[in-house]
């Protein structure tokens, strides 16, 4: 494993579950991942349904959606972990993993998100996340394959996901 100062794959990171437990993302090495920053009061929130559909369609083939709620964009994710999970389950039947709330930009950005932004900068080389539902596709080797804008609907990613499965 690379040192924390020199991360090379998603396996070099940990994430926090909504209850506060820390999990190693090394457990997901070998899977194709779609890492997304989410919010439940956003114009893009209906994308939860598309993310769930991708998860259900491809999970048996080694695909996983990993969602990180974030409240940095217009305060659109103000709830607690339990409130977020309940909202997602009731409104979208979510069954893919929801992680604990994170910052994706700024001094308190989660290390994973700092790495993702560096591996796949946005438009014109921007390293910041511009809004909720920015997506990163990760290959089985744990490396970032592509970054998608919030406006890119989950169903439009199917061809890229299939190519990695």
From TrEMBL:
Keyword Chaperone (UniProt): no
Signal peptide segment: none
Segments traversing the membrane: none
Record-linked SUPFAM superfamilies: Thioredoxin-like
Hydrolase among keywords: no
Domain Thioredoxin: 4-165
One Gene Ontology biological process: cellular response to oxidative stress
UniProt keywords, alphabetically: Oxidoreductase, Peroxidase
Alphabetical list of Pfam families matching this protein: GSHPx (PF00255)
Location of the active site: 42
GO molecular function: peroxidase activity
Family (UniProt): Belongs to the glutathione peroxidase family.
Protein's recorded name: Glutathione peroxidase
């Amino acid at each position: 494993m690379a040192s924390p100062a020199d991360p090379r794959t998603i396996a070099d990171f940990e994430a926090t579950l909504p209850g506060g437990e820390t999990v190693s993302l090394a457990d997901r090495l070998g899977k194709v991942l779609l890492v997304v920053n989410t919010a439940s009061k956003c114009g893009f929130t209906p994308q939860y349904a598309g993310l769930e559909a991708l998860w259900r369609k491809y999970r048996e083939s080694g695909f996983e959606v990993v969602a990180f709620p974030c409240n940095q964009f217009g305060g659109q994710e103000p709830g607690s972990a339990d409130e977020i999970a309940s909202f997602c389950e009731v409104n979208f039947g979510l069954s893919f993993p929801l992680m604990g709330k994170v910052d994706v930009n700024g001094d308190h950005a989660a290390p994973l998100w700092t790495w993702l932004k560096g591996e796949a900068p946005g438009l014109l080389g921007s390293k910041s996340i511009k809004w909720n539902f920015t997506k990163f596709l990760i290959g089985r080797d744990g490396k970032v394959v592509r970054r998608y804008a919030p406006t890119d609907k989950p169903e439009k990613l199917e061809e890229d996901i299939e190519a990695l499965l």
